[in-house]
Amino acid sequence: MMGSLQSIFKIPELKKRIIFTTLILIVYRVGGHVPIPGVNAQALLEYFQQAQRGLLGLYDLFAGGAFKRATVFALGIMPYISASIIIQLLGAVVPYFQKLQKEGEQGRKKITQLTRYGTVAISIMQGYGVSVFLERIGYSTSGQLVVPHPGFGFRLLTMLTLSAGTILIMWLGELITERGIGNGISLIIFIGIIARFPNSIFDELQQVASGNRTLITELLLWVIFVGTVAGTVLLTQGTRKIPVQYAKRVIGRKIYGGQSTHIPLRVNTAGVMPIIFAQSILFIPQTAMQFFPNSNFMMSINALFDYQSWSYWIIYGVMIVFFTYFYTAIAFNPVDVADNMKKQGGFIPGVRPGKRTSEFIDNILTRITLPGSVFLALIAIFPSVVAKFTNVSYNFASFYGGTSLLIVVGVALDTLQQVESHLLMRHYDGFMKSGKIRGRRRF
Questions:
Q1: Sheet containing 346-347: which strands, arranged edge to edge?
Q2: 201: region left, alpha or beta (phi > 0 left; psi from -120 to 50 alpha)
Q3: Which of 83, 108, 139, 269 has a 20 to 30 Å separation from 374 between CA atoms?
Q4: What is the mean pLDDT of the chain?
Protein backbone atom coordinates (compact mmCIF):
# COMPACT_ATOMS: atom_id res chain seq x y z
CA MET A 1 0.00 0.00 0.00
CA MET A 2 2.76 2.49 0.93
CA GLY A 3 4.65 1.61 -2.24
CA SER A 4 1.53 2.30 -4.32
CA LEU A 5 1.04 5.67 -2.60
CA GLN A 6 4.63 6.59 -3.40
CA SER A 7 4.13 5.51 -7.02
CA ILE A 8 1.26 7.98 -7.37
CA PHE A 9 3.66 10.93 -7.17
CA LYS A 10 6.06 9.34 -9.65
CA ILE A 11 3.52 9.77 -12.46
CA PRO A 12 3.43 13.47 -13.49
CA GLU A 13 -0.05 13.36 -15.01
CA LEU A 14 -1.61 11.56 -12.03
CA LYS A 15 0.20 13.87 -9.61
CA LYS A 16 -1.21 16.95 -11.40
CA ARG A 17 -4.71 15.51 -11.40
CA ILE A 18 -4.63 14.79 -7.66
CA ILE A 19 -3.22 18.23 -6.81
CA PHE A 20 -5.82 19.90 -9.06
CA THR A 21 -8.64 17.93 -7.42
CA THR A 22 -7.37 18.87 -3.95
CA LEU A 23 -7.24 22.59 -4.82
CA ILE A 24 -10.78 22.55 -6.26
CA LEU A 25 -12.11 20.82 -3.11
CA ILE A 26 -10.38 23.47 -0.98
CA VAL A 27 -12.14 26.18 -3.00
CA TYR A 28 -15.44 24.39 -2.39
CA ARG A 29 -14.85 24.21 1.36
CA VAL A 30 -13.87 27.89 1.52
CA GLY A 31 -17.00 28.87 -0.40
CA GLY A 32 -19.04 26.90 2.12
CA HIS A 33 -18.14 29.51 4.76
CA VAL A 34 -19.01 32.69 2.81
CA PRO A 35 -22.35 33.88 4.29
CA ILE A 36 -25.41 35.07 2.37
CA PRO A 37 -25.89 38.85 2.73
CA GLY A 38 -28.69 39.82 5.10
CA VAL A 39 -28.78 36.63 7.25
CA ASN A 40 -27.86 36.29 10.92
CA ALA A 41 -25.86 33.05 10.70
CA GLN A 42 -25.66 32.56 14.48
CA ALA A 43 -29.45 32.76 14.89
CA LEU A 44 -29.96 30.29 12.03
CA LEU A 45 -27.46 27.86 13.57
CA GLU A 46 -29.44 27.90 16.83
CA TYR A 47 -32.58 26.95 14.89
CA PHE A 48 -30.86 24.07 13.13
CA GLN A 49 -29.69 22.60 16.41
CA GLN A 50 -33.35 21.70 16.99
CA ALA A 51 -34.27 20.67 13.41
CA GLN A 52 -31.09 18.93 12.25
CA ARG A 53 -32.70 15.51 11.76
CA GLY A 54 -35.58 16.50 9.51
CA LEU A 55 -35.68 17.00 5.78
CA LEU A 56 -33.59 20.15 6.22
CA GLY A 57 -30.95 18.07 7.99
CA LEU A 58 -30.80 15.70 5.01
CA TYR A 59 -30.40 18.69 2.69
CA ASP A 60 -27.64 20.08 4.90
CA LEU A 61 -25.85 16.70 4.69
CA PHE A 62 -25.48 17.01 0.91
CA ALA A 63 -24.53 20.68 1.22
CA GLY A 64 -21.64 19.81 3.54
CA GLY A 65 -23.04 21.85 6.43
CA ALA A 66 -23.35 25.01 4.27
CA PHE A 67 -27.15 25.15 4.55
CA LYS A 68 -27.29 25.62 8.32
CA ARG A 69 -24.55 28.26 8.04
CA ALA A 70 -26.53 30.14 5.34
CA THR A 71 -23.60 30.42 2.94
CA VAL A 72 -23.48 31.00 -0.84
CA PHE A 73 -23.18 27.21 -1.26
CA ALA A 74 -26.24 26.56 0.93
CA LEU A 75 -28.09 24.66 -1.82
CA GLY A 76 -25.02 22.52 -2.43
CA ILE A 77 -25.16 20.16 -5.38
CA MET A 78 -28.72 18.98 -4.61
CA PRO A 79 -30.36 20.92 -7.51
CA TYR A 80 -28.00 19.17 -9.93
CA ILE A 81 -28.76 15.77 -8.39
CA SER A 82 -32.50 16.50 -8.53
CA ALA A 83 -32.26 17.51 -12.20
CA SER A 84 -30.22 14.37 -12.97
CA ILE A 85 -32.78 12.13 -11.26
CA ILE A 86 -35.66 13.82 -13.12
CA ILE A 87 -33.91 13.37 -16.48
CA GLN A 88 -33.16 9.73 -15.65
CA LEU A 89 -36.77 9.04 -14.66
CA LEU A 90 -38.01 10.76 -17.83
CA GLY A 91 -35.69 8.48 -19.80
CA ALA A 92 -37.78 5.52 -18.65
CA VAL A 93 -41.15 6.90 -19.82
CA VAL A 94 -40.60 9.68 -22.41
CA PRO A 95 -39.58 8.53 -25.91
CA TYR A 96 -37.54 11.70 -26.60
CA PHE A 97 -35.22 11.05 -23.64
CA GLN A 98 -35.06 7.32 -24.47
CA LYS A 99 -33.85 8.30 -27.95
CA LEU A 100 -31.19 10.60 -26.48
CA GLN A 101 -29.89 7.81 -24.24
CA LYS A 102 -29.31 5.62 -27.29
CA GLU A 103 -27.56 8.25 -29.43
CA GLY A 104 -24.13 7.75 -27.89
CA GLU A 105 -21.85 10.74 -27.31
CA GLN A 106 -24.16 13.29 -28.95
CA GLY A 107 -27.10 12.13 -26.88
CA ARG A 108 -25.01 12.28 -23.72
CA LYS A 109 -24.00 15.88 -24.47
CA LYS A 110 -27.63 16.86 -25.03
CA ILE A 111 -28.69 15.20 -21.76
CA THR A 112 -25.88 17.02 -19.93
CA GLN A 113 -27.05 20.33 -21.41
CA LEU A 114 -30.66 19.69 -20.37
CA THR A 115 -29.47 18.71 -16.89
CA ARG A 116 -27.63 22.04 -16.58
CA TYR A 117 -30.73 23.98 -17.63
CA GLY A 118 -32.78 22.00 -15.13
CA THR A 119 -30.22 22.73 -12.41
CA VAL A 120 -30.54 26.49 -12.99
CA ALA A 121 -34.36 26.34 -12.92
CA ILE A 122 -34.44 24.22 -9.74
CA SER A 123 -31.82 26.47 -8.07
CA ILE A 124 -33.94 29.58 -8.73
CA MET A 125 -37.07 27.94 -7.31
CA GLN A 126 -35.27 26.53 -4.28
CA GLY A 127 -33.46 29.84 -3.73
CA TYR A 128 -36.82 31.59 -3.49
CA GLY A 129 -38.11 28.89 -1.14
CA VAL A 130 -35.04 29.27 1.10
CA SER A 131 -35.47 33.05 1.25
CA VAL A 132 -39.13 32.67 2.31
CA PHE A 133 -38.16 29.96 4.81
CA LEU A 134 -35.49 32.18 6.39
CA GLU A 135 -37.94 35.06 6.73
CA ARG A 136 -40.59 32.85 8.38
CA ILE A 137 -38.21 31.53 11.05
CA GLY A 138 -38.37 34.92 12.75
CA TYR A 139 -36.49 34.90 16.03
CA SER A 140 -34.08 32.26 17.31
CA THR A 141 -34.16 30.76 20.81
CA SER A 142 -31.86 33.57 22.03
CA GLY A 143 -34.19 36.24 20.67
CA GLN A 144 -32.14 37.17 17.61
CA LEU A 145 -33.85 37.90 14.29
CA VAL A 146 -32.65 35.51 11.56
CA VAL A 147 -33.36 38.01 8.74
CA PRO A 148 -33.05 41.58 10.08
CA HIS A 149 -34.32 43.20 6.84
CA PRO A 150 -36.85 40.95 5.07
CA GLY A 151 -38.61 41.88 1.85
CA PHE A 152 -38.41 41.66 -1.93
CA GLY A 153 -34.81 42.86 -2.04
CA PHE A 154 -33.65 40.14 0.35
CA ARG A 155 -35.51 37.44 -1.60
CA LEU A 156 -34.10 38.53 -4.96
CA LEU A 157 -30.56 38.75 -3.58
CA THR A 158 -30.86 35.32 -1.96
CA MET A 159 -32.18 33.74 -5.18
CA LEU A 160 -29.31 35.18 -7.24
CA THR A 161 -26.67 34.29 -4.64
CA LEU A 162 -27.76 30.70 -4.10
CA SER A 163 -28.30 30.03 -7.82
CA ALA A 164 -24.84 31.40 -8.63
CA GLY A 165 -23.36 29.26 -5.84
CA THR A 166 -24.97 26.08 -7.18
CA ILE A 167 -23.83 26.82 -10.75
CA LEU A 168 -20.30 27.41 -9.46
CA ILE A 169 -20.36 24.06 -7.59
CA MET A 170 -21.61 22.31 -10.74
CA TRP A 171 -18.75 23.88 -12.73
CA LEU A 172 -16.20 22.86 -10.08
CA GLY A 173 -17.51 19.29 -10.20
CA GLU A 174 -17.21 19.18 -13.98
CA LEU A 175 -13.65 20.54 -13.74
CA ILE A 176 -12.72 17.71 -11.37
CA THR A 177 -14.26 15.12 -13.70
CA GLU A 178 -12.45 16.55 -16.72
CA ARG A 179 -9.05 17.54 -15.32
CA GLY A 180 -8.93 15.88 -11.91
CA ILE A 181 -9.38 12.37 -10.56
CA GLY A 182 -12.71 10.71 -9.88
CA ASN A 183 -16.29 11.86 -10.43
CA GLY A 184 -16.44 15.53 -9.48
CA ILE A 185 -20.04 15.71 -8.27
CA SER A 186 -19.62 12.62 -6.10
CA LEU A 187 -16.35 13.92 -4.64
CA ILE A 188 -18.00 17.23 -3.68
CA ILE A 189 -20.70 15.34 -1.74
CA PHE A 190 -18.00 13.05 -0.30
CA ILE A 191 -15.86 15.90 1.05
CA GLY A 192 -18.91 17.57 2.60
CA ILE A 193 -19.76 14.41 4.55
CA ILE A 194 -16.17 13.66 5.57
CA ALA A 195 -15.78 17.22 6.91
CA ARG A 196 -18.10 16.28 9.81
CA PHE A 197 -16.05 13.24 10.79
CA PRO A 198 -13.21 14.99 12.75
CA ASN A 199 -15.71 16.81 14.99
CA SER A 200 -17.52 13.52 15.62
CA ILE A 201 -14.25 11.84 16.65
CA PHE A 202 -13.45 14.76 18.96
CA ASP A 203 -16.88 14.40 20.62
CA GLU A 204 -16.20 10.70 21.18
CA LEU A 205 -12.81 11.43 22.75
CA GLN A 206 -14.47 13.91 25.08
CA GLN A 207 -16.95 11.24 26.16
CA VAL A 208 -14.07 8.97 27.21
CA ALA A 209 -12.06 11.80 28.82
CA SER A 210 -15.05 12.96 30.88
CA GLY A 211 -15.75 9.44 32.12
CA ASN A 212 -19.17 9.11 30.46
CA ARG A 213 -17.93 6.06 28.56
CA THR A 214 -15.30 3.47 29.38
CA LEU A 215 -12.36 2.77 27.10
CA ILE A 216 -13.54 -0.83 26.52
CA THR A 217 -16.98 0.39 25.40
CA GLU A 218 -15.39 2.92 23.06
CA LEU A 219 -13.15 0.24 21.50
CA LEU A 220 -16.17 -2.03 21.05
CA LEU A 221 -18.02 0.78 19.27
CA TRP A 222 -15.06 1.26 16.92
CA VAL A 223 -14.94 -2.48 16.19
CA ILE A 224 -18.65 -2.35 15.27
CA PHE A 225 -17.94 0.70 13.11
CA VAL A 226 -15.14 -1.08 11.22
CA GLY A 227 -17.35 -4.15 10.74
CA THR A 228 -20.17 -1.97 9.35
CA VAL A 229 -17.77 -0.33 6.90
CA ALA A 230 -16.54 -3.78 5.78
CA GLY A 231 -20.12 -4.95 5.26
CA THR A 232 -20.90 -1.82 3.24
CA VAL A 233 -17.85 -2.45 1.04
CA LEU A 234 -19.04 -6.02 0.41
CA LEU A 235 -22.51 -4.73 -0.49
CA THR A 236 -21.07 -2.12 -2.86
CA GLN A 237 -18.67 -4.57 -4.54
CA GLY A 238 -20.95 -7.64 -4.66
CA THR A 239 -21.70 -8.82 -8.22
CA ARG A 240 -23.24 -11.82 -9.95
CA LYS A 241 -21.41 -12.62 -13.20
CA ILE A 242 -23.46 -14.05 -16.06
CA PRO A 243 -21.20 -15.73 -18.69
CA VAL A 244 -21.58 -14.49 -22.28
CA GLN A 245 -20.12 -16.10 -25.42
CA TYR A 246 -19.70 -14.24 -28.71
CA ALA A 247 -19.83 -16.28 -31.93
CA LYS A 248 -17.08 -15.97 -34.53
CA ARG A 249 -17.87 -13.81 -37.55
CA VAL A 250 -15.85 -13.56 -40.75
CA ILE A 251 -15.88 -10.05 -42.27
CA GLY A 252 -13.60 -9.79 -45.29
CA ARG A 253 -10.34 -11.41 -44.34
CA LYS A 254 -10.72 -10.84 -40.60
CA ILE A 255 -12.38 -12.95 -37.91
CA TYR A 256 -14.30 -11.12 -35.21
CA GLY A 257 -15.76 -12.42 -31.96
CA GLY A 258 -15.20 -15.82 -30.45
CA GLN A 259 -14.26 -14.49 -27.02
CA SER A 260 -15.93 -15.16 -23.68
CA THR A 261 -16.95 -12.40 -21.27
CA HIS A 262 -19.60 -11.82 -18.61
CA ILE A 263 -22.35 -9.42 -17.54
CA PRO A 264 -21.70 -8.14 -14.00
CA LEU A 265 -25.03 -7.74 -12.19
CA ARG A 266 -24.56 -5.77 -8.98
CA VAL A 267 -26.22 -6.86 -5.77
CA ASN A 268 -26.94 -3.19 -5.10
CA THR A 269 -27.62 -1.77 -8.56
CA ALA A 270 -29.65 1.15 -7.17
CA GLY A 271 -26.81 2.49 -5.01
CA VAL A 272 -27.82 5.06 -2.40
CA MET A 273 -30.94 6.29 -4.23
CA PRO A 274 -33.49 4.04 -2.36
CA ILE A 275 -32.34 5.51 0.97
CA ILE A 276 -32.61 9.07 -0.36
CA PHE A 277 -36.13 8.44 -1.69
CA ALA A 278 -37.28 6.78 1.53
CA GLN A 279 -35.73 9.46 3.76
CA SER A 280 -37.28 12.26 1.71
CA ILE A 281 -40.75 10.78 2.21
CA LEU A 282 -40.37 9.84 5.89
CA PHE A 283 -38.94 13.24 6.82
CA ILE A 284 -42.06 15.02 5.57
CA PRO A 285 -44.09 14.43 8.81
CA GLN A 286 -41.15 15.63 10.93
CA THR A 287 -40.74 18.73 8.78
CA ALA A 288 -44.50 19.44 8.79
CA MET A 289 -44.39 19.30 12.59
CA GLN A 290 -42.21 22.43 12.53
CA PHE A 291 -45.12 24.35 10.96
CA PHE A 292 -47.89 22.85 13.14
CA PRO A 293 -46.31 22.52 16.61
CA ASN A 294 -49.65 22.64 18.51
CA SER A 295 -51.55 20.08 16.42
CA ASN A 296 -52.37 16.88 18.35
CA PHE A 297 -52.80 14.95 15.09
CA MET A 298 -49.35 16.01 13.86
CA MET A 299 -47.84 15.11 17.24
CA SER A 300 -49.23 11.56 17.01
CA ILE A 301 -48.00 11.19 13.42
CA ASN A 302 -44.59 12.56 14.42
CA ALA A 303 -44.34 10.02 17.26
CA LEU A 304 -45.08 7.23 14.76
CA PHE A 305 -42.23 8.43 12.54
CA ASP A 306 -39.72 9.10 15.30
CA TYR A 307 -36.33 7.89 14.06
CA GLN A 308 -35.78 5.79 17.22
CA SER A 309 -39.14 3.98 17.16
CA TRP A 310 -39.78 0.44 15.90
CA SER A 311 -42.57 1.66 13.62
CA TYR A 312 -40.15 4.04 11.89
CA TRP A 313 -37.57 1.28 11.40
CA ILE A 314 -40.14 -1.13 9.90
CA ILE A 315 -41.69 1.45 7.55
CA TYR A 316 -38.25 2.76 6.59
CA GLY A 317 -36.95 -0.73 5.81
CA VAL A 318 -39.99 -1.72 3.73
CA MET A 319 -39.78 1.51 1.72
CA ILE A 320 -36.08 0.95 1.02
CA VAL A 321 -36.78 -2.57 -0.29
CA PHE A 322 -39.54 -1.18 -2.52
CA PHE A 323 -37.45 1.70 -3.89
CA THR A 324 -34.51 -0.63 -4.49
CA TYR A 325 -36.61 -2.72 -6.88
CA PHE A 326 -38.15 0.44 -8.35
CA TYR A 327 -34.86 2.18 -9.10
CA THR A 328 -33.18 -1.04 -10.28
CA ALA A 329 -35.95 -1.47 -12.86
CA ILE A 330 -35.22 2.06 -14.11
CA ALA A 331 -31.43 1.86 -14.06
CA PHE A 332 -31.07 -1.58 -15.67
CA ASN A 333 -33.20 -2.79 -18.59
CA PRO A 334 -32.74 -6.53 -19.35
CA VAL A 335 -34.57 -6.17 -22.70
CA ASP A 336 -32.03 -3.63 -23.99
CA VAL A 337 -29.14 -5.77 -22.79
CA ALA A 338 -30.55 -8.85 -24.54
CA ASP A 339 -31.17 -6.92 -27.78
CA ASN A 340 -27.63 -5.50 -27.80
CA MET A 341 -26.16 -8.96 -27.21
CA LYS A 342 -28.23 -10.40 -30.06
CA LYS A 343 -27.11 -7.66 -32.48
CA GLN A 344 -23.45 -8.28 -31.61
CA GLY A 345 -23.72 -12.06 -31.92
CA GLY A 346 -23.53 -12.72 -28.19
CA PHE A 347 -25.47 -15.31 -26.22
CA ILE A 348 -25.64 -16.85 -22.76
CA PRO A 349 -24.68 -20.56 -22.93
CA GLY A 350 -27.82 -22.69 -22.70
CA VAL A 351 -30.22 -19.74 -23.14
CA ARG A 352 -31.90 -18.82 -26.42
CA PRO A 353 -31.14 -15.22 -27.59
CA GLY A 354 -33.85 -12.55 -27.47
CA LYS A 355 -36.83 -12.80 -25.13
CA ARG A 356 -35.55 -15.87 -23.26
CA THR A 357 -32.26 -14.07 -22.54
CA SER A 358 -34.02 -10.98 -21.17
CA GLU A 359 -36.24 -13.17 -18.96
CA PHE A 360 -33.18 -15.10 -17.72
CA ILE A 361 -31.33 -11.88 -16.80
CA ASP A 362 -34.46 -10.40 -15.19
CA ASN A 363 -34.99 -13.51 -13.01
CA ILE A 364 -31.39 -13.42 -11.77
CA LEU A 365 -31.55 -9.67 -11.15
CA THR A 366 -34.78 -10.08 -9.16
CA ARG A 367 -33.27 -12.80 -6.97
CA ILE A 368 -30.00 -10.99 -6.17
CA THR A 369 -31.80 -7.66 -5.55
CA LEU A 370 -33.79 -9.11 -2.62
CA PRO A 371 -30.83 -9.84 -0.29
CA GLY A 372 -29.16 -6.64 -1.50
CA SER A 373 -32.23 -4.54 -0.66
CA VAL A 374 -32.65 -6.18 2.76
CA PHE A 375 -28.98 -5.60 3.61
CA LEU A 376 -29.30 -2.02 2.36
CA ALA A 377 -32.30 -1.51 4.66
CA LEU A 378 -30.34 -2.89 7.64
CA ILE A 379 -27.43 -0.54 6.92
CA ALA A 380 -29.85 2.40 6.68
CA ILE A 381 -31.56 1.58 9.99
CA PHE A 382 -28.38 0.75 11.91
CA PRO A 383 -27.41 4.39 12.79
CA SER A 384 -30.77 4.89 14.51
CA VAL A 385 -30.30 1.63 16.43
CA VAL A 386 -26.81 2.68 17.56
CA ALA A 387 -28.06 6.12 18.63
CA LYS A 388 -30.92 4.58 20.66
CA PHE A 389 -29.08 1.83 22.52
CA THR A 390 -25.83 3.73 23.14
CA ASN A 391 -24.97 7.27 24.18
CA VAL A 392 -23.14 7.89 20.92
CA SER A 393 -23.83 11.32 19.43
CA TYR A 394 -26.12 11.31 16.40
CA ASN A 395 -23.41 12.87 14.17
CA PHE A 396 -21.04 9.97 14.87
CA ALA A 397 -23.83 7.37 14.73
CA SER A 398 -24.70 8.56 11.21
CA PHE A 399 -21.36 7.12 10.03
CA TYR A 400 -22.48 3.64 11.15
CA GLY A 401 -24.57 3.33 8.00
CA GLY A 402 -27.21 5.12 6.01
CA THR A 403 -26.62 7.70 3.31
CA SER A 404 -23.35 8.99 4.75
CA LEU A 405 -21.50 5.66 4.86
CA LEU A 406 -22.80 4.42 1.50
CA ILE A 407 -21.73 7.59 -0.30
CA VAL A 408 -18.33 7.69 1.42
CA VAL A 409 -17.59 4.03 0.65
CA GLY A 410 -18.89 4.20 -2.92
CA VAL A 411 -16.99 7.37 -3.85
CA ALA A 412 -13.79 6.17 -2.15
CA LEU A 413 -13.87 2.87 -4.07
CA ASP A 414 -14.61 4.66 -7.34
CA THR A 415 -11.72 7.10 -6.85
CA LEU A 416 -9.31 4.32 -5.83
CA GLN A 417 -10.31 2.36 -8.92
CA GLN A 418 -9.43 5.31 -11.16
CA VAL A 419 -6.10 5.87 -9.42
CA GLU A 420 -5.31 2.16 -9.72
CA SER A 421 -6.07 2.22 -13.45
CA HIS A 422 -3.50 5.01 -13.89
CA LEU A 423 -0.92 2.99 -11.96
CA LEU A 424 -1.52 -0.22 -13.91
CA MET A 425 -1.35 1.61 -17.26
CA ARG A 426 2.18 2.67 -16.41
CA HIS A 427 3.22 -0.78 -15.14
CA TYR A 428 3.05 0.05 -11.43
CA ASP A 429 1.44 -2.26 -8.90
CA GLY A 430 -2.08 -1.29 -7.88
CA PHE A 431 -3.39 -1.04 -4.33
CA MET A 432 -4.03 -4.79 -4.25
CA LYS A 433 -1.49 -7.47 -5.16
CA SER A 434 -4.24 -9.82 -6.35
CA GLY A 435 -7.39 -8.69 -8.14
CA LYS A 436 -8.59 -5.19 -8.85
CA ILE A 437 -10.80 -2.65 -7.18
CA ARG A 438 -14.11 -2.66 -9.02
CA GLY A 439 -15.82 0.62 -9.69
CA ARG A 440 -19.47 1.44 -9.08
CA ARG A 441 -22.40 3.03 -10.85
CA ARG A 442 -22.60 6.81 -10.51
CA PHE A 443 -25.89 8.52 -9.80
A1: 260-266, 239-246, 346-347
A2: alpha
A3: 83
A4: 79
DSSP tag of 221: H
Express each pLDDT in 78-121 by its tens digit.
888 888 888 877 877 888 888 887 777 888 888 889 999 999 99
Q: 190: phi > 0 → left, psi -120 to 50 → alpha, else beta; which?
A: alpha
- Give the Cα separation of 191 and 29 in Å (integer): 8
Given 195, 213, 231, which residue is the final one in a domain?
Answer: 195
Q: 200 and 186, same structural domain?
A: no
Strand pairing report for 346-347 and 254-256: unpaired
Which helix (H) or strand (E) segment holds residue 249: the answer is strand 249-251
CA pair distance 390, 411, nearest whole angstrom: 29
Distance CA 273, CA 290 (A): 26
Strand partners, 243: 262
Closest to 399 measured CA to CA, from 194, 191, 187: 194
In sequence order, the 6+-apart residues with CB closer than 8 A to the CB of 440 are 236, 266, 271, 410, 413, 414
- Which of 41, 90, 99 has the alpha carbon at shortest distance from 67? 41
* The pLDDT value given to residue 433: 53
pTM, rounded to two decimals? 0.76
The residues, ordered by sequence, that sit 6+ positions from 212 with a Cβ below 8 Å of its Cβ are 391
Q: Same domain for 55 and 188?
A: yes
Closest to 73 in 3D by CA, of 122, 36, 21: 36
Q: Which among 162, 205, 345 has a CA at the least distance from the CA of 261?
A: 345
**Other Cβ atoms closer than 10 A to 315:** 16
Q: Is residue 440 part of a domain?
A: no
Domain boundaries, position 254: 196-400
First to last CA, the chain: 29
State the Cα–Cα distance between residues 4 and 429, nearest whole angstrom.
Answer: 6
Reading phi first (left if > 0) and then psi (alpha if -120 to 50, else beta), residue 127 is in alpha
For helices 184-194 and 55-62, what crossing angle results, to 10°?
Answer: 120
Residue 20 has pLDDT above 80, yes or no: yes
Instruction: Verify that 11 and 34 share a domain, yes or no.
Output: yes
Q: Please give the tally of structural domains in the chain.
A: 2
Please say whether the beta carbons of 165 and 31 come within 8 A.
yes
Q: Which of 402, 408, 404, 431 is nearest to 418 (CA)?
A: 431
**Residue 328 confidence (pLDDT) above 80:** yes
